[in-house]
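Quick start: what a row looks like.
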Amino acid sequence: MSTIHQILKQYWGFEEFRPLQEEIINTVLDGKDTLALLPTGGGKSICFQVPALAKEGLCLVISPLIALMKDQVSNLNKKGIKAVAIYSGMPYSQIDALLDNCIYSDVKFLYLSPERLTTDDFLARIQRMKINLIAVDEAHCISQWGYDFRPPYLRIAEIREKLKGVPVIALTATATLKVVDDIQEKLLFPKKNVLRKSFVRKNLSYVVRKTSNKEQALLDILKKVNGCAVVYVRNRKKTKEFSDLLNKNGIKSDFYHAGLVTKERSQKQDNWVNNKTRVICSTNAFGMGIDKPDVRTVIHMDIPESIEAYFQEAGRAGRDEKKAYAVQLIENGDILELDKKIKEGYPSVEFIKEVHEALLTHFRIATNSGMNETFEFEIASFSEQFKFPMSKVLASIKILEQQELLRVTESVFSLSKVKAIADKDALYKFQTDHAKAEPLIKFLLRTSEGVFEDFAPVDEEVIAQKLKITSTDVVRQLNALHKYRIFFYQARKEKPQLTFLQNRVPKQNLRLDLEFIRKRKEDMEERLKSTRQYVTDNTICRTRLLVKYFGESLSENCGICDVCVAQKKSGLSAEDFSKIVAAVENELRLSPLNTNALNEKLKLKKEDLNAAIDYLLDSGKTVLTETGKLKWQ
């Protein structure tokens, strides 16, 4: 076996690579900059982890998602591969120690966010690390034409000057041809090199179903299709509402969103992964980095804002290559909502400035101050306080991030911190006077190195296990030590963090790049136009529409989406069937008609007309009234 096959067998237990993985790995080992395009579930991580293990030194992995970083680091450590991550919320002493470990110990993977690339600590030590590869995950974030542009990604190019000769592998599941070119340009590829796996998922049936009752449609689908499922909804409130609906109807379900505390999110996720929960109802916060192959159904209750987002989320179904379904439910008002997103997605410049000013006021930032100050941020309470629509606040903050005026990180689980305030004599006296606190104080002094000089991370649950008390008791005692000024205790943070990147200036002096905003708005309009076509065009194979968006053309239809299944039932060619369906649609949009009236108007063969009607009824686009007429939904 070659070295890379030995590594694959030793750490992952696989005899063979998935399609395209080996080719990508060998290209990286040849020292070539490589852009790897693999759909969700295509095994992107192995494409940089295996070549990094095959070479001496450390792989620098740049990722925008803290949860994803922590998940991958945990998985690597479980395999006996030393990996670390640096993210917001960590105390300086911990970051300092991790960077030293990357220089002096056998760390193989260093994960960090792009914001960390240009910090003094990192730049001072990067050239002392033996870096063998730079891996850029979610690489579409570097392109301003991507659906999730993040300006800090542009800084990746800067460190290439300090790491000359170190190859780059960029990875993404979703990139249009325009974004593919932009990624390579921004990462300073000397020569274009794209390895692309087909976006076609031969086992995944895409379905768009129009309905006047989404709740009933959801129940019908989950009763018809066995196995575990993900149900995506737009907001946190609906995650619980739909989960409650399923549980009441005998379908074991749970809900998930970013507003839950870390421990609760982890428990819900583990229950679903281990099939203790059949269905998870979630916002788009769920799914990244979760390698669960046996998802049979992914159902979207609302229309996503882009084909990229939909393709990534839908692609979590059927990773085991067995038959699976990706179902988009729509009702009459959804298309209008899609059109409204343009206004919500790009508020007026004046409103954006209002939000920025309100944030500064909310956190009491004075003029000419605020740069690099970080605060816990809860967008729902902020929106309510200032009477702003939350959707417009979210959009405004995204634009302010792209203009590099502020940064919002996802909620993170960062350990609590302690620092000794009292001197050793005062500590001894306190222990004498408070015997119950003695075990905790001794434990902190014994396990928290440098606690008199700097903050030391502590885990309340670990302490509880060691001292054989409850974690609630640990927290209570730590708060008491804080109150008596024996230790400074800062409890763990789990809320999103907002950082101001520039000092406050008067509102009228705030400068925004209006041309950039205009171009991004135009790009969003194009993406929504493509999304609209996907959910409304009933004449083109769904798979064909999706992969065309990413620049791939198919010579034949997929044969398993709702459009193809209906066409096959009719016995007509795809083109003829599409024409008949379109003709029936046009008539029913004008007024409800029975089958005979339709036949008189269209002069079609009875079996052809019935096939078109069956398709429109099955897809929920048409309903049968009590008087026997077909009515357009």
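That is the whole record. The radius of gyration is 28 Å. Residues 3-196 form a domain with the Rossmann fold fold (CATH 3.40.50.300).
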